[in-house]
């Protein structure tokens, strides 16, 4: 790897699903690296052993794969590198850049109370910075603290936030190793980023204060500090912190709701980043255009309506075979997707391929599409919604019985041939086309709206259409006999 190779990393904690903010951070890292011929690495920050789970790790890897983001090299697991983290602390102790602190919890509590009472942000008073180790109390295992500078300032030139400065007098000597020898998050992140050759740290601005402490560790070790870019968090439409009602869900939830990966990528890239007035980006266009200074400093606002609109656009761009492939991938993750999965024979696939071009025009999600296509795979007698029931009066059902007889000999069974037969039937019966087509639609689809009724006839095929018409006409007979 050459010195000027860009290396980014995505470093989630496996304590839950891959949430929408994490997915955007991963995307920004991926785009920045890919645009510059660099590498994006993946590190699982699993040092919190109580909260880290294999299920969460699997959900993160699965979420990244679904959204279409790959990474370079093997996944790094932070916990497995604990020995390396301790080794680095030993070098700091040897150089005088760190020291052993034997303060008890009671002493630390007293220091914090005193500091807060005096309005100071530096909570630890440095009591063990320069004390002789011979003064150490017997039997007490120390923590190891960074010997941070007491005066001057710590600054970073952030690619999004600009120059950010902290006064060193306000920063504590942070703990590097706990008394049980386990490394802290602050230390582990610096050591891992250095060892992995990370050149650019792109992450949420909730980590901005961490950057000051991490830079001090880099400086103490004499290591090159990476370029930082702290991106604003995502807020709800009302400007408040994201909650589940706003869309603070895992990407697996968006998959289950029927969003396409390409639409999610496009939506996420526009959350806080802009490129002129362009709203729709292919992945290639994103890679070509993406840069850090174009990220705004204000929190982005999540907008479900905009996501749905964008998803509808991507659905309309796909042809029927591609849409059916996406639906098949969705079914294991979709509530009640098992019904269609069970019925998906080659014959039903052929019917769906005929129906999807007409259905996709109004669909906002793949779940919408599956629901709108329900008439294709519904069991007889099909369920009717309220509007369809209202259309199917006794008179209308009687008309359908006669229509079934008129349609039976139609050959070939195409949209054109069935349209000619329906129009001819309406004329012979002295009815307007709508008076035949509306109950026909209700009987065939169970709804008052659908794709073009003659497309529906062609999609369902002769046997299914005549069967559904007979079902409804039979109900008219039962009603009149009653």
From TrEMBL:
Sequence ranges assigned to domain Glutamyl/glutaminyl-tRNA synthetase class Ib catalytic in this UniProt record: 6-308
Entries under Pfam families matching the protein: Anticodon_2, tRNA-synt_1c
Ranges where the Aminoacyl-tRNA synthetase class I anticodon-binding domain occurs: 339-470
Enzymatic reactions: tRNA(Glu) + L-glutamate + ATP = L-glutamyl-tRNA(Glu) + AMP + diphosphate
Gene3D superfamilies named among the record's database cross-references: 1.10.10.350, HUPs (3.40.50.620)
Gene Ontology molecular function terms on file: ATP binding; glutamate-tRNA ligase activity; tRNA binding; zinc ion binding
Gene Ontology cellular-component terms listed: cytosol
Record-linked CDD domains: GluRS_core
EC supergroup of this enzyme: ligase
SUPFAM superfamilies: An anticodon-binding domain of class I aminoacyl-tRNA synthetases, Nucleotidylyl transferase
Motif ('HIGH' region): 12-22
GO BP annotation list: glutamyl-tRNA aminoacylation
NCBIfam families hit by this protein: gltX_bact
PANTHER family tied to this protein: GLUTAMATE--TRNA LIGASE, GLUTAMATE--TRNA LIGASE, MITOCHONDRIAL-RELATED
Subunit composition and interactions: Monomer.
Family: Belongs to the class-I aminoacyl-tRNA synthetase family. Glutamate--tRNA ligase type 1 subfamily.
Name listed for the protein in its UniProt record: Glutamate--tRNA ligase
